[in-house]
Design a protein that fits this description.
This protein has 298 residues and is α+β, with helices and mostly antiparallel strands. The chain is built from ten helices and four strands. Helix 1 packs antiparallel against helix 2 and helix 4 crosses helix 6.
């Protein structure tokens, strides 16, 4: 009963996070629309147009998000005959977690990494790299798959997908806004008002994607700790995932098709060379050392 209550709280928290992301997105889009409307001389027209653009993009990204992510990652669907152990591991851990078996994908990369995506457990998928399958032993691979199954069980995949959508839309609207300033002219406003609107709009257009990215990354870091813990419970072997994380963090091979918009989906950072300035603030993952320490303490 206690475990069910914990899971209910996790799902509820992710539902709340999803709702907050949607509200933030709507407010941000409305704000962009308001400023664009001021530049065009029609506030309502600006809000309506930006909401339409944002809504269309959001619907496409939400319902086709899984396919878009797999295409960006260069992942291909595989059959049970091709990768029997991968399928058996995913099936067994899905059964233990009480969710439908996700579809399996393999990424042609020597890097050690994996991720899960989809809107719901019924529409989920797990992707792993060829390098992960080749270099991890049985216990380590089970730990990684359990971590991804935990993301699906906790409904993290929907929240993380919405975060991807949020960042993408904000960047798109920022570009539209900047173009409106450059090519939209000053309308009927005097020169001073035009300059003020230009400065305010430019600052918002630059900062909005940064704020959106920070929201996405903050949510991702918290999700990773929860998925580590649930994954360890599923396998009853925390050291399997801990040892896998050691190999993943020590892997020198970067993901060839890594994309900053979906970097937070991976179990480990897809990048290997990092800048130390602002590294903690803009990191998609919590410190690997801390994740390993928590697992080994279980």
């Amino acid at each position: 009963m206690a475990k069910k209550l914990v899971h209910f709280d996790e799902v509820r928290n992710n539902n709340i996070k999803s709702f907050i992301l949607i509200v933030l997105f709507m407010l941000m889009v409305a704000g962009f629309g308001y400023i664009v409307g001021l530049l065009w001389g029609n506030i309502y027209l600006g809000i309506i147009i930006t909401l339409i653009i944002g809504g269309i993009y959001a619907l496409i990204a939400y319902f086709q998000g899984k396919n878009m992510v797999m295409s960006i990652a260069g992942a291909r669907p595989v059959t049970k005959k091709e990768y029997p152990y991968l399928y058996h591991t995913v099936e067994g851990l899905s059964l233990a977690a009480g969710i439908p078996t996700p579809k399996c994908y393999v990424i042609p990369s020597k890097s050690l990494n994996a991720f899960a995506t989809g809107r719901t457990p019924d529409d989920s998928a797990v992707a792993v790299t060829e390098g992960l399958l080749e270099r991890l032993n049985r216990e380590e691979l089970e730990g990684v798959i359990a971590h991804e199954i935990a993301h699906i069980k906790n409904r993290d995949i929907r929240t993380m997908m919405l975060a991807v959508v949020l960042v993408g839309i904000v960047v798109l609207l920022s570009d539209v806004f900047l173009r409106s300033i450059i090519f939209g002219g000053g309308g009927n406003r005097d020169g001073r008002a035009t300059v003020i609107m230009f400065i305010v709009g430019l600052v918002l257009a630059i900062l909005a994607p940064i704020f959106a990215e920070m929201i996405k990354l903050a949510i991702s870091r918290k999700n990773e700790y929860a998925a580590d813990a649930r994954g360890a419970v599923l396998t009853r072997n925390p050291r399997g995932l801990a040892n896998a994380l050691k190999k993943i963090s020590g892997d020198p091979n970067p993901m060839e098709n890594a994309n900053s918009a979906m970097a937070h989906l991976y179990i480990g950072s897809p990048y290997r060379k990092k800048r130390k300035i602002f590294q903690k603030l803009f990191s998609t993952h919590p410190p690997t050392e801390e994740r390993i320490r928590r697992l080994e303490a279980m």
